[in-house]
UniProtKB/TrEMBL annotation:
Residues 1-24 form the signal peptide. Keywords: Glycoprotein, Repeat, Signal. Gene3D superfamilies: Integrin alpha, N-terminal. This is VCBS repeat-containing protein. It comes from the Bacteria. InterPro entries: Crtac1, FG-GAP, Int_alpha_beta-p, Integrin_alpha_N, UnbV_ASPIC. Residues 542-609 form the ASPIC/UnbV domain. Coiled coil: none annotated.
């Protein structure tokens, strides 16, 4: 089982849970469809909320002299007068803050003046709710920034209500020692040292030149200063705080836009995630439990957003682990994307990586928490693409909440920037005008900056909202849920403003009145539970407390953290939607110090309060169940090193590098001692080696290749008895992209003569290959070889050259003949082959050949005796083209025939495809320069557009820049407009409508396609191992992959960590979590092979630029 929710699982082992059938029989409400939209905007006349974060731009104060002007304000919700109704507080930048008291029925009174909460005219950002003096009254902490060198944060302490029932506040930040002088954006209160009182973390955004080079960021990170750092204040317990940033290990440089706190590794201590703008990296701080933190960003996350804005953390997939949502600024719309997004510079991108600033991409990231690694660090995979939430334009505040009360947390994202400050055309024109201006005048005056501001494009955008489908994916519901109104939104929060059991939305807008959206999900019979806390004396609101709800077959976990999203705080109550469940089986509350209380058979549709003093049990962490696989020490195994080569210098618009597909791997008992040995290949510049297993399970490296063989790159390999002398020889397929077709791609064979491997002569095979599959196709008693051709160097996506080699060898003398076209006509240039399998595909007891590859259909060559015929069309009446990387077989439904698992690119990649919405490639010499050009295209809003922008496209074909003189005209042009209908028609052209990895079921009526679970769609599947791994009599599969070599505008595919899927013998598969399987391969895994080491069965894997790993199953 997962270590998720250890306490909850331990306690539930003592509880008898009511069955789902019993729950279903006790439904009290019928689930009616909602008439109208889920949300209904509340009019200003009704709510009386007229707050407007109005910006007044002048010649002396505007974007050009204060580029942070559009960062907006926040909004927070709390019951400030303790009347049982949540009130609302807005912060303003150039206007006063506003406090509105809730009068019921979604009506509010503006009590700003009487309450003393308007502020002092500073540039206000985040509003954080707290109870600073533990008097039971909610206080407000304000994060302040602006043009001043020193900006002091403010604290409005609630003094209680006056004679009119209005809460009155007094500003006392300095008294408490938390008038932070940084340029702050957001703050959060939490108990970092578990001493019972609440400490304070302040996220700061120091004033920085946006054109600062990457080296500056790396130096600032290496040598951080207190004035430009975020700050941690420890609560002394006597009404004062002290800055402990440096001693806590948090002194850093970061352009912090949000700080979100939760327990990421379930150890009982609160951790911190910092979202940072521009090249400055995010920080994932894990609490060491001794008053210090360690940054595990590089160890825990494979990638982050580049322009990191707001964040929220919650368990969106109900597995008990906290996941992270971070937003960026990439538009979903093609036109806005091409007008506003600059192309990423390859050299600049890798400079950031080399400087330790991580892999950062201009997309939202949804970090799925996979569990803890061997060092206890949480491990995350970005699944934003498969989730459908990667591109939401210029986004600010992401919020997880169950808006439709179905038991799954949905996503709201506020977005919009008052002016398009990344508009390429505007700034290109402005730069040109300024150059002319400064050359033409010698006067000490300047152009009218305000006029330039007004010329800057401005386009309001609708906020985004997504419904959680419960399968790691979300469905966009902007119009369906009533949020189609466009604007410029920043801070946002949610609360049950009318106390009816569903969550309203409150949004702070620039240059527009704030929005209140009434939630109407309770109109359709959905149930809920609200959980309130009466905490201990030093933490009255119970900040940091976790609640777990079991209802029917579902578990939900939430943690009380108020600062969420962007510059905003949520109501200090936990909400759980329950769908149609009419009873809660169990509700567990765990306080920050480990004390817990459990209630069983809880009624729904109520607000329930838990008191700290009634929690009489203390949690003891249970031991974990042993995972299925155990990993050996990878430090003792070889590590692959790739040679340096920039493929994009050859073909600038490649979708990914083609030179990083190694290394090769194969396993066999080479020396006949009864122990499995293995060979691992290398990149150009070094030689591979054989590793002989020793009786103690260790391996001895055997170097056998001559020095001159270092020029080859090893892509495929197999041990095979080529000369029929009873021992195993070694065939190695050469590949790569670095060279044109020449001798460096020559395959090699090493004949085993008395235990020594000697290189033998092969026919001339100088194509860049991928795989080797032995089979005695002619039945003469020796093994013939199919060699898959991977690519045509410098000529993507043209096919490589595949070969069929007939084995004519004699003892100690390898001899092959190329018989490709004679035996398998048409297969020589079948495509960019990645894998192949000899198998009885048509159930006639003869081995056929099935070949898969990039931009290829699943090709089927049927054995007709002396020849093989392409009968692909006989088996597939649908478009089966994909980026297929692997194939393996087994009888997964126990019906006596052979089924297949076929690994594809997956559905968690920038490139998406679906039926009727193909992803395409065209290749042609479009500009007549004797070089092949690449055009990748996709569907957007019903038309076909180029994937790459004007800048990148014109690097390949300079005439594009002349034809489309600005980004706007390019953004409005489709592929036919840009490249010409005739030219595209005459191009090499491939189209893909499916990137999903599949289970291909062999039925009486032909083959039926089933998609593997979404857990298997998170990354490319580069290799597959089929075996009954858990010894239950049913075939299981282990898959692994990733694709780290993507071009830099495309986030690399790195969400795969290896996956074991247990078969049920009926064609169904259940994915195991990392903690259940023990498999953790977060590398660019290329190949795997089964192996037995020390008498224990398992597998070995190799990765590009990564380690060799071995996993085994304890007997």
């Amino acid at each position: 089982m997962r270590s998720t929710n250890h306490l909850a699982l331990a306690i539930l082992s003592l509880i008898v849970i009511c069955s789902c059938n019993e729950q279903a029989s006790e439904k009290e409400h019928q689930n009616y469809s909602l008439k109208g939209t889920l949300f209904k905007k509340v009019s200003i006349d009704h709510s009386q909320i007229n707050f407007n974060n109005q910006l007044t731009e002048t010649d002396t104060f505007n974007y050009f002299n204060y580029p942070y002007i559009y960062m907006g304000g926040g909004v927070s919700v709390a019951d400030f007068n303790n009347d049982g109704l949540p009130d609302i507080y807005f912060t303003g930048n150039m206007v006063e803050n506003k406090l509105y008291l809730n009068k019921g029925d979604l009506k509010f009174d503006d009590v700003t003046v009487a309450s003393g909460t308007a502020g002092d005219g500073s540039w206000m950002h985040g509003a954080t709710i707290c109870d600073i003096n533990n008097d039971g009254l909610k206080d407000i902490y304000i994060s302040i920034s602006g043009r001043n060198k020193v900006c002091r944060n403010q604290l409005f302490v609630n003094q209680g209500v006056n004679e009119n029932g209005i809460p009155v506040f007094k500003e006392l930040a300095k008294k408490y020692g938390i008038d932070d002088p940084g340029h702050s954006t957001q703050s959060t209160f939490f108990d970092y040292d578990n001493d019972g009182d609440l400490d304070l973390y302040v996220a700061n955004y120091p004033i920085t030149d946006f054109k600062t080079p990457s080296f500056f960021y790396s130096q600032m990170i290496k040598h951080p200063q207190m004035h430009s750092s975020d700050h941690l204040y420890r609560n002394n317990g006597d009404g004062t705080f002290v800055n402990v940033t440096e001693e806590a290990g948090l002194l850093s440089f970061s352009l912090s836009l949000s700080a979100t706190v939760t327990d990421l590794n379930n150890d009982g201590y609160k951790d911190i995630y910092i979202s940072s703008d521009f090249a400055s990296p995010d920080f994932c701080y894990i609490n060491n439990g001794d008053g210090t933190f360690k940054d595990v960003t590089a160890q825990s996350l494979r990638q982050t957003s580049y322009y990191g804005m707001g964040t929220d953390i919650a368990d969106f997939n109900n597995d008990g682990y906290m996941d992270i949502l971070q937003v960026d600024m990439t538009p979903e719309d093609h036109r806005r994307n091409k007008e506003n997004m600059a192309g990423m510079n390859t050299a600049g991108f890798y400079e950031l990586v080399d400087l330790g600033l991580h892999h950062q991409y201009m997309y939202n990231t949804l970090q799925l928490n996979r569990g803890l690694d061997d060092a206890g660090n949480p491990q995350f995979s970005n699944i934003a693409k498969i989730a459908g939430v990667s591109s939401t334009d210029w986004s600010w505040s992401p919020l997880f909440a169950d808006f439709d009360n179905d038991g799954w947390k949905d996503i709201f994202i506020s977005n919009g920037t008052r002016r398009d400050i990344n508009n390429n055309d505007f700034f290109n024109k402005l730069d040109a005008e300024r150059q002319v201006y400064f050359k033409a005048t010698t006067e000490k005056s300047k152009s009218n900056e305000l006029d330039n501001v007004h010329k800057m494009p401005s386009e309001p955008i609708a906020n985004y909202i997504f419904k959680n489908n419960g399968d790691l994916t979300f469905e966009k519901k902007i119009e369906a849920w009533g949020l189609e109104e466009k604007g410029f939104s920043n801070g946002a929060t949610y609360a049950d403003l009318d106390n009816d059991g569903d969550l309203e939305l409150i949004i702070n807008n620039i240059d527009h009145v704030a929005d209140i959206y009434e939630n109407r999900s309770n109109d359709v019979g959905k149930h809920y539970i609200k959980v309130n806390f009466e905490g201990p004396d030093q933490n009255k609101m119970g900040i940091g407390t976790k609640a777990t709800v079991w209802s029917g077959a579902q578990m939900q976990v939430s943690e009380l953290t108020l600062s969420r999203g962007y510059q905003s705080s949520v109501e200090p109550i936990l909400y759980f939607g329950l769908g149609e469940n009419t009873k809660i089986d169990s509700l567990l509350v765990v306080w920050p110090n480990g004390k817990y209380e459990l209630k069983k058979q809880v009624a729904v549709d109520q607000s329930l309060t838990f008191n700290y003093n009634e929690a009489n049990h203390v949690y003891e962490k249970p031991a974990l169940d042993k995972p299925l696989f155990t990993k050996t020490d990878e430090a003792l195994l070889p590590k692959h090193k790739e040679n340096t080569f920039n493929d994009f210098d050859v073909q600038v618009l490649l979708p990914h590098k083609m030179s990083n597909f190694g290394p090769a791997l194969c396993v066999a008992d080479v020396n006949k001692d009864g122990l499995d040995d293995y060979f691992v290949g290398t990149a150009t510049g070094s030689n591979g080696a054989i590793y002989l297993q020793q009786p103690d399970g260790s391996f001895e490296k055997i170097d056998f290749q001559p020095e001159e063989d270092k020029m080859y790159e090893d892509l495929g390999a197999t041990f095979v008895d080529i000369d029929n002398d009873g021992d195993l020889d070694l065939y190695i397929v050469s590949g790569g992209y670095e060279f044109r077709d020449d001798k460096n791609y020559q395959d090699r064979v090493y004949v085993n003569i008395d235990g020594e491997f000697t290189k033998a002569t092969l026919p001339q095979i100088t194509g860049s290959g991928s795989c080797i599959r032995p089979y005695d196709y002619d039945g003469d008693g020796d093994l013939d070889l199919f060699i898959g051709g991977r690519l045509s160097p410098a000529n993507y996506p043209y096919p490589g050259t595949s070969y069929l080699l007939r084995n004519d060898s004699k003892k100690d003398d390898a001899n092959f003949s190329v018989v490709t076209e004679d035996v398998i006509p048409g297969i020589a240039e079948v495509g960019m082959v990645t894998d192949a399998i000899w198998t009885d595909f048509n159930n006639d007891n003869k081995a056929d050949l099935v070949v898969v590859g990039e931009w290829m259909p699943i090709k089927v060559y049927i054995n007709k005796g002396n020849k093989f015929e392409d009968q692909t069309a006989e088996f597939f009446d649908q478009n089966m083209t994909g980026w297929w990387f692997s194939i393996d077989s087994g009888d997964f439904d126990n019906d006596g025939d052979t089924d297949y698992i076929v690994g594809n690119l997956g559905r968690n990649y920038k490139y998406q495809a679906a039926e009727g919405k193909p992803f395409k490639v065209y290749a042609n010499d479009f500009d007549d320069n004797n070089e092949s050009d690449i055009v990748l295209s996709y569907q957007n809003s019903g038309d076909e557009y180029p994937v790459r922008g004007r800048g990148c496209s014109s690097q390949q074909i300079p005439a594009i820049k002349a034809k489309y003189k600005d980004y706007k005209s390019f953004s409005q042009a489709n592929v036919v407009d840009i490249y010409g209908d005739e030219e595209l028609e005459n191009s090499l052209h491939y189209s893909v409508e499916n990137f999903g990895s599949i289970y291909l079921e062999n039925t009486e009526d032909g083959y039926k396609v089933h998609y593997l679970p979404n857990e298997a769609q998170l990354a490319p599947i580069n290799d597959i191992l089929v075996k009954d791994w858990n010894n239950d009599g049913q075939l299981d599969i282990v898959v692994a992959g990733n694709l780290f070599s993507s071009e830099v505008e495309t986030p690399r595919a790195d969400a795969g960590i290896g996956l074991c899927l247990l078969g049920d013998g009926k064609g169904g598969f259940t994915p195991l979590s990392y903690e259940e399987s023990g498999i953790f391969m977060p590398y660019d895994v290329k190949q795997m092979s089964k192996i037995t080491v020390g008498g224990k069965e398992g597998f070995v894997s190799v990765s590009n630029q990564g380690p060799t790993q071995m996993y085994y199953i304890e007997k």
